[in-house]
Design a protein that fits this description.
Layout lengths: L4 E5 L8 E7 L3 H6 L2 E3 L10 E8 L6 E10 L10 E7 L2 H13 L3 E3 L4 H8 L5 H12 L3 H12 L1 H25 L10 H20 L1 H9 L1 E6 L6 H12 L2 E5 L6 E8 L2 E5 L2 H6 L3 H14 L4 E7 L6 H9 L5 E6 L9 H7 L5 E3 L8 H12 L15 H22 L4 H19 L5 H8 L7
Parallel strand pairs: 1-7, 8-11, 8-12, 12-13, 13-14
Antiparallel strand pairs: 1-2, 2-6, 3-4, 4-5, 5-6, 9-10, 10-11
The structure holds guanosine-5'-diphosphate.
The site of guanosine-5'-diphosphate has 17 residues, from helix 9.
């Protein structure tokens, strides 16, 4: 497909050693050549080579910037179109001047956020699942999330979806031939044949969905709340976690209140610590929000770190909090084990399983490994597998896989009930379409726009 030519600064805004402008489209090389002076003509440069030279203002001949220009001719480029990348000095002013000159060239306009990746998708170089993985790559905040996204960007998961679709389309073809030419009796279109074929596809969907929970956690982090009465050591714990792990603090404005989150990884396990500002501002959780309100605040969390003081008897408020945690994933942190025991452990051991009770001294930084082990056991069925990184992690993919699964289950049920095959055909076809939506085979423009608008400018 052919489009106009787009350009944008592809590196992060701010001061840096270098900044890169990416230009993509039919006018990329010619347009840049008009403002680039070098010993060699840009237009005659071989693909995937770098030229040294200067960006000049063609009206005044003034040299604007000393640059390196990379030429990548389509289809062997990120967008599958002709791409030029201009490496300039990192200053905001310098790069802006160069970009302005590029944009003055005929038929070159500023790219929208995500438009480069969108073109790679529209030009068939990557599928939608891979494009979405590029967003995850940019956003990933832990090594493991990054590795998972890389795998997806390379297309590992896409291939599995495609082969799954192949199984479904073969079944669909059999059914359709049988409907159109009943006299041919192509395969024995018995209900049992359909159930068997659906069964094969269903097994694969199940295998993929099994990774979804862990995949989602790796991608998004475990939403974690640290809860406990005043002075039990919540903010000390938070500080130790954050210091050791270089916390990434993000402001998430919107919804009901502005939540401040800190994103940390505990030995590869990504945790999103919720409402850390609340903990830091006032350590009195019970007084500040009350048990009633803390109940609703806690609803967001996947994991509750409930901190108790080893050096104090159990308090009525502790019991109220424990009530509020019913049915939730809780790790009880018995803190201050460096001090003499005052806490009645029997009562706690009655309420929580021994795997979910961790003894710590935050002050002496003891017991961290125990905390890691407990979280790992709770969310990852033991060890995280470093090698198998094929996870379905994106909510959109998970929901489509579930829909495909339901359609196939409906088909199996219909075949077992002896319902005519035309009815099953509808179910099998929708399974095929749902799977297609995952990789972007059957999606509307508005969904595509929505997905790509999540990108940053220049990507
Ligand atoms: P919060 O109100 O729950 O956030 O508790 P803080 O983190 O502010 O801690 C309250 C007090 O307990 C501070 O003086 C900490 O230094 C102290 N503290 C925290 N953890 C420990 C620990 O493991 N051992 C001892 N002895 N003191 C601790």
């Amino acid at each position: 497909m052919s489009y106009d030519t787009i350009a944008a600064i592809s590196t992060a805004v701010g001061e840096g050693g270098i900044a890169i402008i990416r230009v993509s489209g039919p006018q990329a090389i010619e347009g840049t050549a008009r403002i680039f002076r070098s010993r060699q003509e840009l237009g005659s440069a071989a693909t995937h080579t770098v030229l040294y030279g200067h960006i000049v203002n063609p009206r005044t001949n003034e040299q604007v910037e000393e640059v390196l220009v990379t030429v990548m001719r389509g289809p062997r480029s990120f967008t599958a179109e002709d791409v030029v990348e201009i490496n300039a000095h990192g200053g905001v002013i310098a790069i802006k001047k160069v970009l302005d000159l590029v944009l003055e060239q005929e038929e070159i306009r500023l790219a929208e956020p995500g438009e480069f990746t969108k073109r790679a998708f529209l030009n068939g170089r990557i599928d939608l699942m891979q494009a979405e993985a590029v967003i995850d790559l940019i956003r990933s905040k832990s090594e493991r999330a990054f590795s998972v996204a890389r795998k997806q960007a390379e297309g590992t998961l896409s291939r599995r979806i495609k082969s799954l679709r192949q199984t479904v389309i073969e079944l669909l073809a059999h059914i359709e031939v049988n409907i159109d030419y009943p006299e041919h009796d192509v395969a024995e279109m018995t209900g049992s044949y359909i159930s068997t074929q659906c069964g094969i596809a269903l097994e694969e969907i199940q295998r993929l969905l099994k990774t979804a929970n862990e995949g989602k956690i790796l991608r998004e982090g475990i939403m974690t709340a640290i809860v406990g009465r005043p002075n039990v050591g919540k903010s000390s714990l938070l500080n130790v976690l954050a210091q050791e792990n270089k916390a990434i603090v993000t402001d998430i404005p919107g919804t009901t209140r502005d939540v401040i989150e800190e994103f940390i990884t505990l030995n590869g396990i990504p945790l999103r610590l919720l409402d850390t500002a609340g903990i830091r501002e006032t350590s009195d959780v019970v007084e500040r929000i009350g048990v009633e309100r803390s109940r609703s605040a806690l609803e967001e969390a996947n994991l509750i770190l409930f901190v108790l003081n080893y050096n104090e008897p159990l308090h009525e408020d502790d019991r109220k909090l424990m009530e509020a945690f019913q049915g939730r994933q809780v790790i009880v942190i018995i803190n201050k084990t460096d001090l003499p025991k005052q806490l009645d452990m029997v009562e706690i051991e009655q309420k929580f399983s021994s795997d979910s009770i961790v003894r710590m001294s935050v002050l002496e930084e003891e017991g961290m490994e125990g905390l890691e082990r407990a979280i790992s056991a709770m969310f990852f069925q033991g060890q995280l597998d470093a090698n198998d990184l094929t996870y379905v992690s994106n909510v959109r993919h998970i929901s489509l896989l579930k829909k495909a699964q339901q359609s196939l289950l409906d088909a199996v049920e219909a075949s077992e009930a002896g319902i005519p095959i035309d009815v099953m055909q509808i179910d099998v076809r929708s399974a095929w379409e749902y799977l297609g939506e995952i990789i972007g085979d059957s999606v509307g423009d508005s969904l595509i726009d929505q997905i790509f608008s999540q990108f940053c400018l220049g990507k």
